[in-house]
Amino acid sequence: MILNIARKELKSLFASPMGWIILALLMMAFGSYYLTGVNNYFEVMSGAIRPAERVGVTIFVGQTVYSIASFIMLFAVPLLTMRLISEERRSQTLPFLFSAPISLTEIVLGKFVGLIVFLSILVFYIFLMLTTLNIWADIDFGYLIANSIGLWLLVASFSALGIYFSSLTQQPIIAAILSFISLFALMIMERFFASDPNHWFAYLSLMKHFQSFSRGLIDSSDLMYFFLFISTFLTLTIRRLDADRLRG
User: Fold this and answer.
1) Predicted TM-score of the model (pTM)
2) By the number of CB atoms within 10 A of the CB, which of 21, 24, 126, 158 ranks highest?
C-alpha cells in the first residue's frame, strides 16, 4: 500500500506543471554551476605552476555543484512538501483518507517515498553529470558517491521536516515558510557556536553532518544522525495525524 500511495504522489507531481517547472529549473541551475565549475577549473589550474597547488577536477567541480545543490534544495523542498498533507486538509479530503483501509504510517511513508523518488532523480542527475568529467580526466568516483549519498540524506531530512509542517496547517504557503525557516536555522546552527564547535547543540546542525560527506567520507555517526532526524519527524507527523483522527 505504501508503494501505491508513493506512485500516486509521484504521478501527481508529474501531472502538475509545478513539478515539471521545479525539475527543469533545478536541472538548469545544476548544469549551469557544473559548466561554471569546469571553466573555473581551467582558469585557476592554468595559473597553478607548482604541483602542490593543483587540485583534482573531481573535488574542484564537485564542491561547486554539491554545495550549491544543498543550498538550492533548501528552497525547493519546502515548495514540494507544502501541499502533501495541507492540501488534503484544505480540500477536506483528509477524513476520507483516514477512513480508508490503510494505516497512518502507510499514508505518511507513501507520501514521503513518492517525494523522495522525485528528488532522487535530481541527485542521480547531478551524479551522472559529474561522471562526464571522466571523458577527459581521471575522477574520484568514491568522492562523487559519498557526496551523492550525503545530498540524498540531506534532501530526505528536508522532506521529513517539510511533511511534518505540512501536517500542521491547511495553508500550503504557511507550511512552506515554516519549513524554510526551520531548515535554514538548522543549516546555520553550527555558526551560532563557532567559538565552541564541540558544543552539543552545534551537533544539531544539518550542514555539520553533511560536511563529512562533502569531503568524500561516509561516517556512521552522520548516517545515524540523518536516520534519527528523518524517523523523528515522520513519527511526529504520524502522531499529529493520529490526533486529528481522534478529534474527528
Assistant:
1) 0.89
2) 158
